[in-house]
Amino acid sequence: MEVFLMICCHETTIFTNVKEQSNDDGKTLGECSFTSQRARPQAAAPVELAFRADEAFEDLCIEPFSSPPELPALCDEAAGLRKQRQ
């Protein structure tokens, strides 16, 4: 089965898919709670990536996604008219 992941590091986001049986430190992704039921294409499992610097990992720094702009009033009115017709 495939597992879909969203890997985040700073301002970079990578979407990828891997086999659930992929091993890491002797454990499968399924044993680490990354299963095809929990990490689907429409809801990828988030993974935060930190690089190792000398003997310690860097601090996690994940930039939030930007919010979409508000819809113009004309779009809201058109949506309201469609609902009235139904």
UniProtKB/TrEMBL annotation:
One of its GO terms (cellular component) is VCB complex. One of its GO terms (biological process) is transcription elongation by RNA polymerase II. It comes from the Eukaryota. SUPFAM superfamilies: Ubiquitin-like. Coiled coil: none annotated. Gene3D superfamilies: Phosphatidylinositol 3-kinase Catalytic Subunit, Chain A, domain 1. PANTHER family: ELONGIN B, TRANSCRIPTION ELONGATION FACTOR B POLYPEPTIDE 2. This is Uncharacterized protein. It comes from Eschrichtius robustus.
